[in-house]
Specification:
globular, alpha/beta, five-stranded mixed sheet, seven-stranded mixed sheet, 469 residues, 23% strand, 15 helices
Length: 469
C-alpha cells in the first residue's frame, strides 16, 4: 500500500483505495502520539461534511483520540470546514480535523488537519505526521459507546461562528431589500447559510440544499461549468446576487444580477478595494501564484504591496499574518482576513460582498466596474485548464519540466521564470503562465493570464505541445 501523503489541502484519496479505515486511524494515532509527546492540549474538535462515510470516519477518529486520552468535541451534525476551523481556534487547541475532500468528485474523501488558531497545518506539521505514521506499531482506541459523554462530547459551534462574522461587519438586520440565491452544491453549509441570511434579514433561496453524497454526479466546485442552475435562478427571480459554494463551504464564486460568472480573482479585488477605500483598512494583500494580477495592480495603486505565495492556503494565511495584510486569498475561491479564522471561508466572503453592496449602494457588477476603473481599466483574462495523466505521462512531464527545465518558445519578452514544484513564467507585458501538479488530486494544471482569452489559449497550447498533452 502507498505511503500516506498530505497535499496542499490535507490527505485526500479515493474511498476504498487509499482512503480506508486503516489509513484514517493511522493518521489519528500519529496525531495523538504528537499531542502526547509534545504535551499539547489534550482536546481536539472533529468536523465532518456530507460525503459518503464522513460521519462514520469522524467516529473512527474520535475513538482513536479518546483511546489516547485526548478529549474530543465531535460535531453533532455535518458542518463546513470553516466552522471546524473556528472551533479549533476558540478552544485554543493545537490540532483539529475535518473529514472532507472539499471540491473533489464524490468518489473521494479526505482529512484536513488544522493547527493552533484554526490555521491549516503547515508543511512541517504534516510531514511530522507522515513520519510518525511510518513508526506506528499499535493503534489505541476506545469504543464509541463507551467514550460518548466522557471522552467524546457532541458539540456544535455554528452559532458562535456566525456571531463572529456578523459582529465583524455589523450585519445583523442590515440586508433588508436584498434578494439572494445560494447554490449549496449538496454540501454541508446549508444550515449556516440559512441562519446567516435570517440574521442579515435578506430575502433568500437555497438551491441544491439537500444532502446528496454523489453531488448530482457533478464535481461540487463553484466553477463556470457548474453554475447553470444558479444563473437561471438568479435571472428568473431577479435576484441581486447569487453565490455558489463548494461541498465543504470554503470556496466561492458569484453570479451577479446580470447572470455573469465572477470568480475569486475578482471577489478578492472587490474585497480589498472595499476594505481600504470604504472601511479605512491599511495594508497590503496576499495572493497565490495562480491568482490574477488584478489584485497586484489594485494593491499597488492603493499604495501598498501584494505578496505572492505558492498554492496552498497555509502560505496565504502565513503571509497575511506576517505582513499584517488586509486580505489574502487564491483564485480557486477562498479568502481570509484578520479577526476570524486563518483559513478560507465562503460565508465570510459572502458577508463581505453583501456588506460592500449595502455600504456602497451598488450592485456587484457596478462595484467590480468601479474597481477596474480605479486601476485605469483592467481587461486581462485568466484561463485554467487541467489534464489527467498516467504514470508514464507523469514521468515524462517531470523530466521535461523539472529535470530539464524546458519551457515553450515564448510569445512575449520574458521578465522572470520561477522553478519550484511548479514553473511560472512572467512576461514583460504583465501576462504570465503557470504549470503545476495539483496537490489535492491527480491532475496537471496550466494557468495563463493575458490580454484576451484567445491569447491565453495560445499560451496554454504552447505548453500542451511541449508536453504532448
Amino acid at each position: 500500500m502507498k505511503k500516506i501523503k498530505f497535499g496542499t489541502g490535507g490527505f485526500r484519496a479515493v474511498i476504498g483505495e487509499e482512503f480506508t479505515r486503516a489509513n484514517v486511524v493511522k493518521i489519528c494515532q500519529a496525531m495523538s502520539n504528537i499531542i502526547n509527546e509534545k504535551n499539547y492540549k489534550k482536546n481536539i474538535c472533529i468536523g465532518f461534511d456530507n460525503r459518503f462515510m464522513s460521519e462514520q470516519c469522524a467516529v473512527w477518529c474520535s475513538e482513536v483520540f479518546a483511546g489516547n486520552g485526548i478529549k474530543v468535541h465531535l460535531f453533532d451534525c455535518a458542518t463546513s470546514t470553516p466552522v471546524a476551523m473556528y472551533a479549533t481556534k476558540i478552544n485554543n487547541n493545537d490540532f483539529g480535523i475535518m473529514i472532507t475532500a472539499s471540491h473533489n468528485p464524490y468518489e473521494y474523501n479526505g482529512i484536513k488537519v488544522f493547527a493552533l488558531e484554526g490555521r491549516d497545518a503547515s508543511v512541517e506539521q504534516t510531514q511530522e505526521i507522515e513520519r510518525e505514521i511510518d513508526k506506528l506499531s499499535i493503534i489505541k482506541r476506545m469504543a464509541f459507546d463507551k467514550a460518548l459523554g466522557k471522552m467524546i462530547i457532541k458539540k456544535n459551534y455554528i452559532v458562535d461562528y456566525l456571531i463572529n462574522i456578523l459582529n465583524l461587519f455589523d450585519l445583523t438586520e442590515q440586508g433588508g431589500g436584498l434578494k439572494v440565491v445560494f447554490d449549496n452544491k449538496f454540501g454541508s453549509t446549508a444550515k449556516a447559510i440559512q441562519m446567516l441570511s435570517d440574521k442579515i434579514g435578506c430575502e433568500y433561496k437555497i438551491i441544491n440544499e439537500n444532502r446528496d453524497a454523489f453531488f448530482g454526479f457533478i464535481p461540487p466546485a463553484p466553477t463556470p461549468e457548474n453554475i447553470s442552475d444558479l444563473r437561471a435562478e438568479v435571472l428568473k427571480t431577479r435576484a441581486h446576487i447569487g453565490f455558489s459554494l463548494d461541498a465543504d463551504g470554503d470556496r466561492l464564486a458569484v453570479i451577479d444580477e446580470k447572470g455573469n460568472y465572477i470568480d475569486n480573482n475578482y471577489i478578492l479585488a472587490v474585497a480589498y478595494y472595499f476594505f481600504v477605500k470604504y472601511y479605512g483598512k491599511k495594508g497590503g494583500s496576499v495572493k497565490n501564484i495562480a491568482t490574477s494580477n488584478l489584485l497586484t495592480v489594485l494593491t499597488e495603486k492603493m499604495g501598498y504591496k501584494c505578496y505572492e505565495v505558492p498554492v496552498g492556503f497555509k502560505y496565504v494565511s502565513s503571509a497575511l499574518i506576517e505582513n499584517q495584510a488586509v486580505v489574502g486569498g487564491e483564485s480557486s475561491g477562498g479568502l481570509a482576513i484578520h479577526g476570524h479564522i486563518w483559513g478560507k471561508d465562503s460565508l465570510l466572503a459572502i458577508a463581505i460582498c453583501l456588506k460592500a453592496m449595502i455600504v456602497m449602494k451598488k450592485t456587484f457588477s457596478e462595484i467590480l466596474k468601479e474597481v477596474k476603473e480605479f486601476v485605469g481599466g483592467y481587461e486581462k483574462v485568466i484561463c485554467d485548464k487541467q489534464y489527467s495523466y498516467n504514470s508514464a505521462q507523469k514521468e515524462l512531464i517531470d523530466k521535461i519540466l523539472f529535470q530539464n527545465k524546458q519551457t515553450p518558445q515564448h510569445r512575449y519578452k520574458v521578465s522572470d521564470v520561477v522553478y519550484c514544484d511548479y514553473i511560472k513564467v512572467y512576461y514583460a507585458n504583465g501576462n504570465w503562465s503557470l504549470i503545476r501538479f495539483s496537490g489535492t488530486e491527480p491532475i496537471l494544471r496550466i494557468v495563463a493570464e493575458a490580454d484576451s482569452g484567445e491569447e491565453c489559449q495560445m499560451i496554454i497550447k504552447d505548453w500542451e505541445e511541449l508536453l504532448k498533452l
